[in-house]
Specification:
Layout (H helix, E strand, L loop, with lengths): L10 H5 L2 H52 L5 E2 L2 E6 L2 E6 L8 E7 L11 E3 L12 E2 L10 H6 L9 E3 L3 H5 L8 E4 L5 E3 L6 E4 L2 E4 L6 E4 L4 E6 L2 E3 L3 E4 L4 E6 L7 E2 L12 E2 L15 E3 L8 E3 L2 E4 L3 E3 L3 E3 L3 E3 L3 E3 L6 E3 L22 E2 L3 E2 L1 H5 L14
Length: 389
Amino acid sequence: MIVRRRPAAGWWRLSVSPLLLATATALVVGVELLHDVAAVLQRAERLRQQVAVARSQVMAEAALARRHGDEAASIVDGVRVEREPGGWSVELVAPATSRLRFVADELPGAGPAAFGRAATVREPASGVFVQTPATLGTEAWPQLDAAAVERASRPGVCAALQRDRGIALLHRAVGTDQDDFVLAAGRVAAKLDVATQVLVVTGHLWVEPGGAPLVVELPRDLTIVVVGNLYLGRSVRTTGPGRLVVVARPSADAVAFVDCEGDGQFGPGDRLLGAERFRGPVEGGGSVYFGLRQDASGIDFAGSLVVGGQLHLLVDGRVAGPLVLGHGVSVLGGRHRLHAAGDWAFLPERERIPGFATTGRPRPGRLQLDSQKHATMRNQTLYVSAVGR
């Protein structure tokens, strides 16, 4: 009788046994689960710190408000409020591990209230706005600060702004009677870093048509005062921490008018704004044009607009920041709409609006976390103890 030996199972057969496969699968799943749990815990810790800082800021705001009204106070509900050169500091004086410090500039007064709303108008324009704007009284019209305008920068300090003698002839039958400046001529992006935070353009400002929006980088808030007209040929987007405000106002010898034909010239069918007869350059002043041709796509403007003349729509328009209209809106060649989106706004009572006059008494500005102080506490517990009771 021949006895055959059963061959021993190879290592490869053992490696694919159900038990080993199950063990390997469980190990992989366990590692992935631990990774997910760690990520969730990290996110929860970041959120906890953000909530703690936000809660602390609310407490600091309340303490600063009380301290501002009572110069004799030094510690209010466990929060130390102190005067500093040009501003204020607020520090939570709870246990050392939970101390946070905030700082605020001293503001000369409140900014124009219109910058805290999505849209304000002097003359209602029914059927044009996507939503109904607030009505602006004459006394509430945002006033420029004469001293700030006098100190303001001019186009020569800004490489992204170039004078162009021929730009008007590309889009109008005749040129203009004032200087014409083009923002980021032939480019898709530009950086506007103006130390004074106010840029005065004596003439018309043009944004050329293009397939892509013009991207403007703003390291700080900037107000551009256009003593003339603003012509938007394409959308404008902004990047960076800064916010953009553009003011269109007539020059001293110009008269704004409703440009019914959209040709930039005053004609028999056009209506003057605030004047009995025409005595200025043919293009008037202080007007804003959304679109330079009627077959263009809509214009999305990421900044804030203050229009001293008339706003003309050759295309649909959208304004992300506060919109302030001194007169009305004219729709040219279609049934276009204007959307004051209100994506962002200022806090006029607590923030500086570059170039604009303030009213009322001095006051603390917006509280900011002291970044230098906070940098040394990033790995510390930000829990605030019973100070907030």
